[in-house]
Design a protein that fits this description.
The complex is a heterotrimer of chains A (511), B (235) and C (111).
Chain A lengths: L4 H22 L4 H22 L1 H6 L4 E4 L10 E4 L1 H24 L4 H20 L3 H19 L5 H32 L4 H7 L5 H19 L8 H7 L2 H26 L2 H6 L2 H22 L3 H21 L3 H29 L13 H4 L1 H15 L5 H15 L3 H25 L7 H9 L7 H23 L5 H12 L2 H8 L2
Antiparallel strand pairs in A: 1-2
Helix pairs in contact in A: 1-2, 1-5, 2-4, 4-5, 4-11, 4-15, 4-21, 4-22, 5-6, 6-7, 7-9, 7-10, 8-23, 10-11, 10-14, 11-14, 11-15, 13-14, 13-19, 14-15, 14-19, 15-17, 15-18, 15-21, 15-22, 17-19, 17-21, 18-19, 18-21
Chain B lengths: L1 H20 L12 H13 L4 H9 L1 H21 L14 H23 L8 H19 L1 H7 L2 H26 L22 H23 L9
Helix pairs in contact in B: 2-3, 3-4, 4-8, 4-9, 5-6, 6-7, 6-9, 8-9
Chain C lengths: L1 H19 L3 H23 L20 H32 L8 H4 L1
Helix pairs in contact in C: 1-2, 2-3
The chains are: A mainly alpha (511), B mainly alpha (235), C mainly alpha (111).
C-alpha cells in the first residue's frame, strides 16, 4: 500500500533541521518551540501509522511503501515499512521525542547546532530503517556517522575530541567497506534494490558470495561495536553529554543492529551464513564480545564508561541470540532490543541528572548523590534492577526469553554467558548504588564550591522537564514489564517475516 | 620479526583482494539491469542529455538529498566545533597587480560556475561541481585581499542563508512534485522543453541551482571556520 | 587486470598509512588514499571502452558506459570530502588542547 506518511517520517526532521539556522538569524527564542513542534509531529505520525493500519497488522498483511520520484522498484528508490521496521521506527520516534524534551532542560550552550545535528540524526535513523535501496542505505549510514561525530566532540575538551577522532576513523573505514560491498553487489547483479538483490544473490559465484559477505560483516561489526572492533565505543559513548550518550548507546546501536538484520536475513539470506560456516563462528564472537563488555564494565571506575561497556555486553548478547536463527531467538532478541532501548536511555538520562552535582564521572565523586536527589536515585536503582534482570521489570522477561532460546537448542555456553553477564551486572551496579548512599561530610569550602558552581538545571522549569522525562522512562520499564505481551502482535509478525524473506520480495516486486 | 609478519599479512591481504576482485563477471546477472534501463529510457523519461545527472537528480534524487544533507551536517558540525567568536586572521593581501587582475577575473569565474551549475543536464557538471567553483572565488579572495575582506563583504549570516536556503529549495521542489505529479521528488514534467535546450529536463536544473548555491556557501563556511585564529597560536 | 593491481596497491598503501603513521594528518591522508583507491577501481571497472554516458548527435544508446557507478562514485566522493573536512576540524581542535598531533603522545587514542 502506498502511503506518504512513511516519507514524512524522514522529511519532517530534515525540514526542521534546515529551518533552525534560518530561525536563529531571526529570533533565537523561537527555536525551542520549533524543536518541540518537530518532535510532536514526528511522534504523531508514528501513532497515526499504528492506529490507522492496526487492522492490517492484525490480519498479518501490514506493508507500506513509497516510490520516490514515482519510479517504482527496481528502477527507483523505494521506502518500505513492514512489521520489523514498524517496531524500530516507532521506538525511535518515541525515544527521541523524550530525549528532545530532556535536552531542552539539559543542554546549556550551542543549542542551535545541537538541535540541527539532533534532528539530522533522527531523519537519518528513520531513513536507514525505512529505505529499500542498498545505496540509499549507505548514504544514510554515512549521514549517521557525520552527524554523530560532532556530537561526540560536543563538550569540546581534549578527551571528547580524541573520542571523536577515534569514532570517526572507525566509522569512515566501516562505511568504506559498506560502500565496497554495495558496489560489488551492483557489479555482480546489476541492481541496487534490496528485494531484487535478494532474489538473485544465490546465483552469484561461491567465491564472490563469501567476499561480499565478509566485506559487509567487517563494515557492520565495526559499526555495531563487536569485540575485535569495539575500541571506539566506550570512549565515544562516555565523552559526550548524557543526553547524547543515551542517543548513541540506547538508540543508534539498535539502528545498526536493524541494518545487520535487514542485510543478513533479507538481502543476503541466512542460509549463506550457514553454508560458509560463518554463523556459528559469529555466535561465539558475539558471546565473547558480550563477556568482554561485562568484564570491562566490572573494572570501569567511570560510571558512563561502565554503562557503555555494559552496552557492548548487551548488544553482543542480542546479536548472538539473533544468529541462532530460531523463532524463540528472534522473539527474545527483538524484545530485548525494546527493553534495552528503554533501560539504557533511561539510565543515561538519570545518570546525566545525577552527575550534574559532581565534579567528574569518577566513582569517588559519586558518593552521596543518593541523598541529594532522592527521587531520581530511586528511579536509577529501579532501572539498574531492570538491567540486571529482576522481575517484574521488562529486563527480566526479555532476558528470560533469551536464556530459553539458548537452552532450547542446547547452546549451554550462550546461556552461561547471559547468566554470568547478569551476575557481573549485579556487582558493577551495586558498587555505584552503595557509593551513592554513602554518607559524606561536606566541608565549608565544598559547600561554597557547590553554591558557586550551581548547575544550569537550577532554573525551575528545566529541572522539572528533566525529572519528568526520567520518571517517564522509569514508568515505562515497569509498565511494559507487566504488559510486555502488548508487543506480541508486531513481534510475531516481524518474526514471520524474518523466517520467510520470500514474502518481502514478493510484496515489493509484485509476485 | 614483527615487521616481517605484518608484511606477510599485507601480502596475503593483497593476494586475496586481487584474486577475489579480479573475478568480477563481465555480464550482470539480471538480463535487463539498472543501467540498461537508464540508458534505454533516460533521455525519453527525464529529458536530460547527461545520463549521470539524470540518475543523480531524478531516478535517485533521494540519494542526492541525503548527500547534500551530509554536507549540511558536516558544515554544522564544523561550525559547532570551531565556533570561537574571533575574527579571522587578516593581512594586507598580495600586491596591487594581483588584486586588480582578480577583480577583472572574478566575474568570469562566477560565470563559469553558473554555466557548470545550469548546464548540468546537458554537459558534464552539475550543482556539486559548480558549487565548488563558486566556493573557490571566496577562497581566492581571502588569499589575495586578506581574509577579513571577504568576511566583511559576505557575512556569515548571508552564507548561512544561502546554505540552508539551497537545502530547502531541494525539499520544496520535492514537495511540488507531490502536488503536481503525486510523488516526492517527481520530475516536474510541465517545465520540460525539447531535450537539448537550456530549459528542459523538468526540475533537474532547478535542483542543480539550489545545490550549487548550497555547496558553494557550505564550503566557504568550512574554509573560513578552519582559517580562524585559535587561542595561543602564533601567526 | 592492471586496475585491480593498482587498486590493491593503493588500498594497502592507505591502510598501511592509517595503521603505521603517527601523525594524525598523515592518517587522514591514508584514509583518503583508501577512499580514492576504491573510487578509482569502481570507475575503472565500469569503463568498458565505450562512450561517455552523455547524449551527443549520432550516437547509439548501446554504446554508452554504465552511468550508475559514476553517479554512485560522485556521491561517495562528496561524502568522503565531508568526512575529511570533519576529521581535519577535530585535529585542529585537538591541536588546540593537546598541542600535538602525534598519536603516540595522545594516550586517549591508544588505550
Amino acid at each position: 500500500m502506498i502511503s506518504i506518511s512513511i516519507l514524512l517520517l524522514i522529511i519532517i526532521p530534515l525540514v526542521v533541521a534546515f529551518l533552525i539556522p534560518l530561525l536563529d538569524l531571526y529570533n533565537k527564542l523561537l527555536r525551542r518551540y520549533l524543536v518541540i513542534i518537530g518532535g510532536v509531529i514526528e511522534i504523531s505520525i508514528s501513532i497515526y501509522i499504528i492506529i490507522s493500519y492496526f487492522s492490517d497488522l492484525k490480519a498479518g498483511k501490514f506493508f507500506l511503501t513509497y516510490y520516490l520520484g514515482g519510479w517504482g522498484p527496481p528502477f527507483g528508490i523505494n521506502l518500505v515499512m513492514d512489521s520489523v521496521s514498524l517496531i524500530f521506527s516507532s521506538l525511535i520516534s518515541f525515544a527521541l521525542f523524550f530525549i528532545i524534551i530532556y535536552s531542552i532542560g539539559f543542554i546549556g550552550h550551542h543549542e542551535g547546532k545541537y538541535y540541527v545535528l539532533f534532528f539530522l540524526i533522527l531523519g537519518a535513523m528513520q531513513g536507514a530503517i525505512l529505505t529499500g535501496d542498498m545505496f540509499n542505505l549507505y548514504v544514510f549510514i554515512e549521514l549517521l556517522t557525520v552527524t554523530s561525530a560532532p556530537l561526540v566532540a560536543f563538550k569540546r575538551n581534549k578527551h571528547a575530541t580524541e573520542a571523536a577522532i577515534k569514532y570517526m576513523f572507525y566509522g569512515v573505514i566501516g562505511g568504506l567497506f559498506f560502500f565496497v560491498g554495495v558496489i560489488l553487489l551492483y557489479f555482480n547483479i546489476g541492481s541496487l534494490n534490496m528485494a531484487q538483490l535478494a532474489q538473485h544473490f544465490a546465483e552469484i559465484e561461491n567465491n564472490m558470495q563469501l567476499t561480499i559477505i565478509s566485506i559487509f560483516l567487517i563494515g557492520l561489526l565495526i559499526k555495531i561495536g563487536i569485540f575485535p572492533f569495539h575500541f571506539w565505543l566506550p570512549k565515544a559513548h562516555s565523552a559526550c553529554p548524557s543526553s547524547l550518550s543515551a542517543l548513541l548507546s540506547g538508540v543508534l546501536l539498535k539502528v545498526y543492529l536493524y541494518i545487520f538484520i535487514r542485510l543478513f536475513w533479507i538481502v543476503i539470506g541466512f542460509e549463506f551464513l550457514l553454508e560458509f560456516n560463518i554463523a556459528s563462528f559469529l555466535v561465539y564472537l558475539a558471546l565473547v564480545s558480550s563477556l568482554f563488555g561485562h568484564v570491562f564494565a566490572l573494572q570501569a571506575s567511570d560510571i558512563k564508561r561502565m554503562l557503555a561497556f555494559s552496552s557492548i555486553g548487551h548488544i553482543g548478547m542480542i546479536l548472538a541470540v539473533f544468529l541462532l536463527n530460531t523463532e524463540t531467538g528472534f522473539y527474545g532478541g527483538l524484545l530485548h532490543i525494546i527493553s534495552h532501548l528503554l533501560m539504557k536511555t533511561g539510565l543515561f538520562l538519570s545518570t546525566g541528572y545525577l552527575l550534574q552535582y559532581t565534579k567528574s564521572n569518577h566513582i569517588d565523586d559519586f558518593a552521596g548523590v543518593g541523598h541529594q536527589n532522592k527521587g531520581i536515585f530511586v528511579g536509577f536503582i529501579l532501572l539498574t534492577l531492570s538491567m540486571i534482570g529482576m522481575p517484574p521489570f521488562i529486563g527480566f522477561f526479555s532476558k528470560w526469553y533469551i536464556i530459553m532460546a539458548f537452552l532450547k537448542i542446547q547452546h549451554h555456553f550462550g546461556a552461561i554467558v547471559v547468566v554470568l553477564g547478569s551476575l557481573s551486572a549485579v556487582f558493577y551496579y551495586l558498587r555505584f548504588i552503595a557509593k551513592g548512599y554513602e554518607k559524606i561530610k561536606l566541608s565549608a569550602s565544598d559547600l561554597k564550591n557547590e553554591i558557586y558552581n550551581r548547575p544550569i538545571l537550577s532554573v525551575f522549569y528545566r529541572e522539572k522537564l528533566v525529572t519528568t522525562v526520567i520518571y517517564i522512562f522509569v514508568g515505562m520499564i515497569i509498565l511494559t514489564g507487566f504488559s510486555f505481551r502488548l508487543f506480541e502482535l508486531p513481534l510475531q509478525e516481524g518474526i514471520k517475516e524474518l523466517i520467510n524473506p520470500q514474502n518481502y520480495i514478493n510484496l515489493i516486486l509484485g509476485g | 620479526m614483527k615487521k616481517f609478519l605484518v608484511g606477510l599479512l599485507f601480502i596475503g591481504l593483497a593476494f586475496l583482494l586481487l584474486i577475489n576482485f579480479a573475478e568480477l563477471p563481465e555480464e550482470k546477472l539480471i538480463t535487463f539491469s539498472l543501467s540498461d534501463y537508464y540508458i534505454g529510457f533516460g533521455l525519453e523519461q527525464t529529458g536530460a542529455l547527461n545520463l549521470v545527472t539524470a540518475i543523480l537528480y531524478d531516478y535517485r534524487g533521494f540519494d542526492s538529498l541525503g548527500e547534500s544533507t551530509v554536507i549540511f551536517a558536516a558544515v554544522s558540525g564544523i561550525v559547532l566545533i570551531l565556533s570561537r567568536k574571533m575574527l579571522p586572521v587578516s593581512s594586507h593581501g598580495l600586491s596591487f597587480i594581483v588584486k586588480r587582475t582578480l577583480g577583472i577575473l572574478t566575474p568570469f569565474i562566477a560565470l563559469f560556475s553558473l554555466y557548470v551549475i545550469t548546464h548540468g543536464h546537458l554537459t558534464p557538471g552539475g550543482g556539486f561541481q559548480g558549487g565548488v567553483i563558486l566556493a573557490a572565488i571566496s577562497i581566492i579572495f581571502s588569499i589575495v585581499y586578506g581574509s577579513a575582506f571577504d568576511y566583511k563583504r559576505y557575512s556569515p549570516e548571508l552564507k548561512t542563508t544561502f546554505e540552508t536556503g539551497g537545502a530547502l529549495v531541494f525539499i520544496i521542489i520535492g514537495g511540488l512534485g507531490i502536488l503536481f505529479d503525486g510523488f516526492f521528488l517527481d520530475n516536474l514534467d510541465f517545465l520540460t522543453h525539447s531535450p537539448g535546450t537550456l530549459i528542459s529536463a523538468g526540475s533537474i536544473p532547478l535542483i542543480n541551482i539550489g545545490i550549487g548555491f548550497k555547496v558553494g556557501a557550505g564550503l566557504a563556511i568550512v574554509f573560513y571556520s578552519m582559517i580562524q585564529k585559535t587561542f595561543g597560536e602564533e601567526f | 587486470m592492471l586496475h585491480h593491481l593498482v587498486f590493491t596497491v593503493l588500498f594497502l598503501l592507505g591502510l598501511y598509512t592509517v595503521i603505521y603513521k603517527n601523525n594524525l594528518i598523515k592518517m587522514v591522508i591514508g584514509l583518503n588514499i583508501m577512499e580514492i583507491a576504491v573510487f578509482f577501481w569502481v570507475i575503472a571497472v565500469s569503463d568498458t571502452g565505450k562512450s561517455v554516458p552523455i547524449y551527443h548527435l549520432n550516437k547509439f544508446a548501446a554504446s554508452f558506459n554504465d552511468p550508475v557507478p559514476q553517479a554512485l562514485t560522485l556521491t561517495g566522493i562528496i561524502i568522503g570530502a565531508s568526512t575529511t573536512a570533519l576529521l581535519l576540524t577535530f585535529i585542529i581542535e585537538l591541536n588546540k588542547f593537546a598541542d600535538t598531533i602525534d598519536s603516540n603522545k595522545l594516550e586517549g587514542l591508544n588505550e
